[in-house]
């Protein structure tokens, strides 16, 4: 793990665990390229349930966008997970100007009805399902 990722992960962990009333965020994934840090809200997943709701926070090294729209440095994503079927559904999201969920919200939306899919192998969503359902 390179120094920049380790420093960012440490700073993020301190920020999330010291904020009053904040959830406990656990580092879920650090890709080898170092461009995205992915955290999961540990407080949102009750142990031993077939279905769970989880919030994920992704913080990007460089601004992201969709076809030039909604430029953002981080995203909070809400997932529903079906542990029996090993599937995941994205249900809500907010994109933020700043890193680690800070700054102005540039886009927020919901999917309506949850559409469950098998996550792509070795993806952040696959790690999310594995981490949630192993409890």
Task: Please give a structural write-up.
- The chain has 135 residues and is α+β, with helices and mostly antiparallel strands.
- The chain is 19% helix and 42% strand.
- The protein is built from 2 helices and 6 strands; from the N terminus they run αββββββα.
- It has helices spanning 3-18, 124-133; strands at 25-29, 36-41, 51-66, 69-82, 87-96, 105-110.
- β4 and β5 (87-96) form a beta hairpin.
- The protein is globular and about 40 Å long.
Summarize the structure.
With 135 residues, this protein is α+β, with helices and mostly antiparallel strands.
Present the secondary structure layout.
Elements: H1 3-18, E1 25-29, E2 36-41, E3 51-66, E4 69-82, E5 87-96, E6 105-110, H2 124-133
Antiparallel strand pairs: 1-2, 2-3, 3-4, 4-5, 5-6
